[in-house]
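To: structure subgroup
Subject: Chain for Friday's discussion

All,

I'm putting the inputs and outputs inline so they're searchable in the archive.
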Amino acid sequence: MRILVADDDAVVREVVRRYLERDGFTVVETADGPATAEVLGRNEIALAVLDVMMPPPDGIELCRAVRAGPHPDTPIILLTALGEEEDRVLGLQAGADDYIVKPFSPRELALRVASVLRRAQRTAVPAEQPTLRSGAIELRPDAQAVLVEDRRVDLTAREFDLLAFLLAHPQQVFGRADLLEQVWGWTFGDQSTVTVHIKRLRAKLGAAHRIETVWGRGYAWGRPGDEDGEH
């Protein structure tokens, strides 16, 4: 597998490359935004590690471009020296799958890369699973499609899996750690990614969504204890 490592710090690239190559990956290195955009455009990589602070377009801009482009499911991990929660949320809102703050352990990054790739390659919703419906929403695993009032809604792979999981467990409350493990397949990671994906799902599904926030506990599809809900 080819992994893109984009960072304007040559030392960071070298260290990350050594660890990833030790795990059997082939590494492509870039040092600025334009070169990185060119590699991303060729769609020849399995995952991208992007530095937020490299010469523009920076990691955030590139992440947004990938998510809006022809290959929106490319797994992305952001690297940054900014550690505040609002900075992490900004990266996740741009569509990053994970977020690592500098200075970081190269071994941890290598483990994160392996974890994100496993999640991207795993079919979380088997194609043979029956169509899931809730109100105006219809999720078709065989076609990897979501319809709202017969209109197709474009979701990323992660958003699709999250919606499928919630639809399959109506009125059950799941904390962010639970969803991170069940949907992402991670036992570690920034739980803000769950919050951001919930927000994006609500926006894309509009008034048809039934994602409830259960304060102090987590999220549920439909109000817990509401036996009259259609699912």
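Points worth raising on Friday:
The helical segments are 10-22, 33-42, 59-68, 85-93, 106-121, 157-168, 176-184, 192-205.
The chain has a mean pLDDT of 87.

D.
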